[in-house]
Amino acid sequence: MKSIAITVALSATSLASPTPDLVHRTKRANSSWSGWANVKNLFVFGDSYTQTGFDVKGTQPNAQNPLGNPTYPGWTSSNGPNWVGFLTTTYNASFIKTYNVAYGGATVDSALVAPYTPTVLSLKNQTQDLFLPTYGRDPSSTAHPWTAWDSLFAFFIGINDVGNSWWLENSATLYSQIFTVYDALLEQIYATGGRNFLFLNVPPVNLAPLTLENGEYAVEHEGIAIQVWNEKVRNLTAAFGAKHADAKLFVHDTWRVYRDVIEDPGKYEQTKGIRNVTGYCKAYENGTPTWYTKDPSCAYAVNEYLWLNNLHPTFPIHNATAASIAKFLSS
Predict the structure, then answer these.
(1) What pTM, to 2 d.p., does this model score?
(2) Which CATH superfamily is domain 20-330 in?
(3) pLDDT in tens, 182-239
(4) Which domain of life is it from (predicted)?
(5) Domain spans, the chain
């Protein structure tokens, strides 16, 4: 198995420690979080690492397919289920209906960081054009009822914001603008009754083949930008929690899961079969007939590569990520 030296700093596992006053006010406000075992509705926002191709106008989540449409595992970038599918069907502690409005290529706001094509739905679009009009109006009386108590809102965003802007000289100002928008979107969801929020921070995609191919400078400086982004996620959630003592916010250290697997795939049961963590095989880059295809031109089967192509990982690390999230939310 190939290896690579990792020089970026280790990120924190969760939110910075709250002040004693914040702890007191959170307890007094009687948080809506009732535990992972009581989550019945999962609303998901993000990019290609999260997308399943869900259409809010199509078949809704149901007992036959808790992700609604399309057929499980959906249209993913992982050549199999992604973390959303695994979390919903493998590591769920109850029956969960998952409404996944994520869109491949998404940034927080296309006006601030342009996606690879103008038709991409940003986090802002996902919130304002999909979630709010379909599920956010009077949740108790809609065709898809949910409550603050039984619902979790999950966000996995930032990979494209960082990837499309890390080299800019004004990145500090840009990130401040992005997180102002991010905060406003959270406020809009909070206004509909959302109280429980899960954030996946940005993994070390500077160690994906796309950046590795561009040399040490790109690896180092995109890695720094990722750490800045992840720190802003922690700051965002801490500040939002200070404003809304009845909200429960979780930051999952997805960066650490990916870093661990890149260092040693055997650290997780789900990834112990991975044999290449730095490259990918061209025969697999657009997907394969099965989740375990072995092409003669490739050294390993598709699921034995961490990377399906130059940016997107295969399903085993999505599996490990979902297992880690469920453990985190249950602790």
Answers:
(1) 0.91
(2) SGNH hydrolase (3.40.50.1110)
(3) 999 999 999 999 999 999 999 999 999 999 999 999 999 999 999 999 999 999 999 9
(4) Eukaryota
(5) 20-330
